[in-house]
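Supplementary Text 2. Reproducibility record for the structural model of the 367-residue chain.

All settings were left at their defaults, and a single model was retained for analysis rather than an ensemble. We include the record here because the model underlies the residue-level annotations in Supplementary Table 4.
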Amino acid sequence: MDAGIVGLPNVGKSTLFNALTAAGALAANYPFATIEPNVGVVPIPDPRLEIIRGHIDSQKIVPAALRLVDIAGIVRGASQGEGLGNKFLSHIREVDAILHVVRCFEKAPGGEDVTHVEGSVDPMRDIGTIETELILADLQTVENALPKAERAARGKDRDDIIRLELLKALFPLLNDGRPARTLELEGKDHQRAFKGLGLISAKRVLYVMNVDEHDVLGEGPLSRQVRAHAESEGMEAVAVCAKIESELGELEGSERQEMLGAMGLDEPALGKLARAAYHLLGLQSFYTAGPKEIRAWPIPIGCKAPQAAGTIHTDFERGFIRVEAYSVHDLEQYGSEKAIRDHGKMRTEGKEYVMHDADVCHFLFNV
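Retained model, structure tokens:
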């Protein structure tokens, strides 16, 4: 699961990115960390992994991972080359979701002023600025793609015709200032072609409200505006204090827990962000467990067993025979896979089985 962090300059993007990657590195002895100056891979907190390991002895745990890409601050006019211009585009065309960091504090902790690129704090204006630049960038992409698509569609290939139909429908939509994700799609062929266009404003958005230490839950008036906007779009919003997260990233164990308690928080921001991103993208996790590793695998809600097997290896999907599955709850209740079998709770499912959240699976295949 990939997410691109966007926002205006000086809203706390890089502070948040550094804090999340530091928190991921300290979460446990997982092989995740910053892999490039602006790219980090962090483990997604999942207590069910430890529950499984409590009943199945294994050498290691491998959680699902969130790959974060920190995009250079986008300014008004970026789509026309202002600031770093379109250099940021290549980094976020391939991500699954956008984490849009929005400043929801007036002054920085300590009372000092932090200059806002627009001269004042207005989260809704800032959201509009970023979205406008993404829409304008997509409009340019569509406009440039139309002549080639028109020539290709003359060959009467269905895929080429669908691509042209989409581009023609998107041009007036984007020109009207509406994001690509608002386009109504007819069926699976159109959905697949739409995804292949790589449009930025087509992506789901998680609004990250950067709040101050006195509003860690995001209940202030600025945060309420962002929450209402996210809800109106069917998106998600999470309150995060980037400064607190940065300080937490430097602590371990009991010191971290003590600071969390003092701030009235249950967990670092990584957990909240991961759950919100999962919900936003319509994902759930299933697990595989054995002596070598216990691993979490993210899949779309509604995914069938062969496709779930394919996330492990394409051969598993191609040669899928059946899956043996039980829930993490079953493992907690009965204590072992043998006991689950003895109580008749080990399910054998075929190709039409729709995966459940928290399934623990053994896939049988033949290629």
